[in-house]
Specification:
The complex is a heterodimer of chains A (522) and B (174). Chain A has helices spanning 19-30, 53-60, 73-77, 110-114, 129-143, 158-169, 211-221, 270-279, 353-359, 367-373, 419-438, 499-518, and strands at residues 12-15, 35-38, 67-69, 175-176, 225-228, 232-238, 244-250, 256-260, 263-266, 304-311, 327-328, 344-348, 379-386, 395-403, 409-414, 443-447, 482-484. Chain A is an alpha/beta fold and 522 residues long. Chain B has 174 residues and is mainly alpha-helical. Chain B has helices spanning 28-34, 40-53, 61-75, 79-95, 105-113, 119-132, 136-142. In chain B, helix 4 crosses helix 6. The radius of gyration of chain B is 20 Å and the shape is elongated. The chains are: A alpha/beta (522), B mainly alpha (174).
């Protein structure tokens, strides 16, 4: 592995090694750039991962405290963990379920499509689906996405059979096992899925793409990447002219180090990326780096996400097989006749008994609860992810009364559900329950959202500097060598799971950065 | 306690071999002696609390004892959590002026409902759910098979064996 000096001013420092940062680091190294990749978590090997929901959660998750406010149910159920992402080499790609769906054309132009919505801070993206299409192609290729470009989709599992027949009996047509960065057959040096049902605790088999098993090893092979794990970024510094010049981080021993930088990329997952910018205030940027317009941390989105679990007379054994290998796309288009703007996907969902018991209805106890748990083997699950609208006051802020062990203020996540979100939630619950009832469900249980894994918007892209934090290439409007590469750059949420778009944007961003470096302006 | 749960149903549940196994708790006296910070009388109340919060009549006491043992471990060095245990046990025993563990089920439910909304109740309810449904014997009883990778996943062990609906047609390549 390359080793760069702390004083080396030629390196690009990327903070976070997940879908955005890990991919960008590889794409930059391929183009000749020198990269230092700071990852707060540890390097883990596939043999370290476990097939155990709680042990896996504790091994992979970012467990530092946050606080929550707002009228969302998550705030009451999970007041100190409203957001769920990973802290390990590979970031949340160590945990994800592999869903790889593109945003739809209208989802890049939500303001144009939906029109202004009362109270919402909706804007169009400064990029279109047509511009993104080749990068989506490249992302699917890079991730060897099953169900795309001639690759076979994941096979139908038991939970999918229930979804499929329920949806077909309702007359729905856009029903498939979906598209996943999980091998249905061997490919790109990785084996086919063993259907072990544990992608969320690390995928010991390695059938699923992650930055830990694909992008980072390939970036290291270029000889231009230095990966520093257990390195927690705490502050970004800038020089007098306003260009980012260094990242201060705590190393494995907790000692503060200062890595000089030619450019800095934030890819630490939404909350942490905004938190770092807000904490990196200075005389020139008194409200936080790149925050002259007061937009850092605002417009936080987390999708309209929820689950329906249903009990059937016969066994389902939903825990067997890939967790989210099922898709109903009939409700993805924008159809204002439904009474809300935007659309949603219904996807397969399964959980083991440990997390199902904790998340089905947090706080539920007694005979009825226990009787449902006893039916575990007969339960099937459906999940929805839909477009939530941006609001300026749904935001990440820093607490003034509490800091972490590095002296960085604890983040608060504020989120209020708004009318459009509630109308979509209502529609989605009814559709998911209808699918299960059509397949023979005896009882459908509507589960609330759990801590957000789709975190978006808090450092958003905007055509106009006053509307957001970064431009259409993820470059900060106010700091020309500062970039954002995670979901916080999304202008709007769309309906789809965000990872494929994050990866596609990272490929495109690396191209743009390489062009800027060649032109001598980065 | 065996890593592989006793085969009382056709399914067999497994814990990941990398993880430690909890103590068996089959013997009440051994269980009480293993507790480090919760005294015996409170442990008996907590056992009853766990059975009332998550009543599975067919599960043996050993399963609920393991829950209390893990609550005990979670309270070690955590004065706030231990305070919640002390506070809730006192409130539950005081509710009817009779020991909680000796109450009928409806009275136990009533006493617990009176605590709802308190941090102490939230801690006990969450901890009971957290530990009970992470227990291998409970997995076995309710049909969750647990760790599968050491056994080759489910690709040849029933990931698509659902037979009460028609077969799913093969999807065309896209």
């Amino acid at each position: 592995m390359s080793m760069y000096a702390l004083s080396d001013t030629d390196v690009i420092v990327v903070i976070g090694s997940g879908a955005g940062g890990g991919t960008l680091a590889h794409e930059l190294c391929k183009r000749g750039a020198q990269v230092v990749l700071l990852e707060s978590g540890k390097q883990l090997a596939p043999t370290d991962y476990v097939n155990d929901e709680w042990a896996g959660y504790e091994m992979l998750s970012w467990l530092d405290k946050r606080t929550a406010s707002g009228n969302w149910r998550v705030g009451a159920d999970h007041p100190e963990a409203p957001v769920w992402h990973c802290e390990t080499v590979g970031g949340t790609t160590a945990h994800w379920s592999g869903c790889t769906y593109r945003l739809q054309a209208h989802e890049f132009q939500p303001l144009t499509t939906y029109g202004p919505m009362a109270g919402s801070s909706l804007i169009d993206w400064p990029v279109t689906l047509a511009e993104m299409a080749p990068y989506y192609d490249a992302a699917e290729q890079k991730m060897n996405v099953a169900g795309t470009q001639g690759r076979p989709p994941l096979p139908a599992n038991n939970n999918y059979a229930v979804m499929y027949w329920g949806a077909k009996r309702l007359g729905l047509t856009e029903v498939s096992t979906g598209r996943h960065a999980i091998n249905a057959v061997p490919g790109d040096g990785r084996p086919a899925s063993l259907q072990d049902g544990f992608t969320i605790t690390g995928d010991k088999h390695g059938a699923r793409w992650s930055t830990a098993n694909v992008e980072i090893p390939r970036a290291l092979a270029t000889g231009r990447l230095e990966l520093r794990s257990r390195s927690r970024a705490v502050r970004i510094e800038h020089e007098d002219a306003g260009r980012a010049c260094a990242v201060v981080y705590a190393d494995a021993a907790g000692t503060l180090q200062r890595q000089s930088a030619r450019a800095v990329v934030l890819a630490a997952n939404c909350v942490e990326s905004s938190r770092l910018l807000l904490h990196s205030h200075s005389a020139r940027f008194p409200n936080g780096l790149a925050n002259g317009w007061g937009q850092v941390g605002r417009h936080y989105m987390r999708h309209v996400v929820q689950t329906v679990w249903s009990i059937f007379d016969e066994p389902v054994h939903m825990h067997r097989g890939e967790i989210m290998a099922g898709l109903v796309a009939d409700f993805a288009p924008h159809d204002p006749a439904r009474g809300f703007n935007g659309g949603y996907y219904i996807e397969l969902n399964s959980m083991g008994l440990p997390t199902l018991a904790m998340l089905m209805e947090p706080g539920w106890w007694g005979r009825d609860f226990a009787s449902v748990m006893e039916r575990y083997a007969h339960i099937a699950g459906l999940y929805m992810t839909g477009e939530d609208m941006p609001y300026a006051d749904n935001r990440i802020t820093l607490r003034s009364d509490e800091t972490d062990r590095f002296g960085v203020p604890v983040a608060n996540v504020h989120y209020d559900d708004h009318a459009n979100d509630l109308a979509m939630r209502n529609h989605g619950y009814k559709q998911m329950a209808a699918i299960h009832r059509a397949a023979g469900a005896r009882r459908c249980i509507e589960t609330p959202a759990y801590p957000a894994t789709h975190n978006m918007g808090s450092n958003r892209m905007s055509a106009k500097a006053e509307d957001g934090v970064v431009d259409g290439w993820g470059r900060a409007h106010e700091v020309p060598n500062l970039f954002v590469a995670d979901g916080s750059q999304f202008s709007s949420s769309g309906a789809a799971n965000p990872t494929l778009t994050i990866v596609a944007l990272a490929i495109r961003q690396a191209e743009a950065m390489a062009r800027s470096m060649a032109a001598g302006d980065l | 306690m065996a890593r592989e749960a006793a085969a009382t149903s056709p399914l067999r549940a497994f814990k990941d071999p990398a993880l430690p196994l909890p103590e068996a708790c089959d013997d009440e006296r051994v269980w009480l002696a293993a507790l480090r910070c919760i005294p015996a009388d409170r442990a008996a109340t907590l056992l009853s609390v766990a059975r009332t919060l998550c009543p599975h009549d067919a599960l043996p006491d050993a399963v609920y004892r393991r829950v209390v043992l893990q609550i005990d471990r979670a309270c070690e060095g955590q004065p706030q959590a231990l305070g919640w245990v002390t506070e809730s046990v006192a409130a539950l025993d005081a509710h009817f002026g009779l020991p909680f563990a000796g109450l009928s089920e409806s009275y136990r439910v009533t006493a617990l409902k009176a605590l709802a909304g308190m941090p102490a109740f939230r801690f006990l309810q969450r901890a009971t759910v957290r530990f009970l449904y992470d227990d291998l014997a409970v997995w076995q009883a309710f049909g969750y098979e647990g760790a599968s990778y050491p056994h080759g996943g489910y690709v040849d062990r029933g990931f698509n064996d659902l037979a009460w609906l028609p077969p799913v047609p093969l999807e065309p390549l896209r």
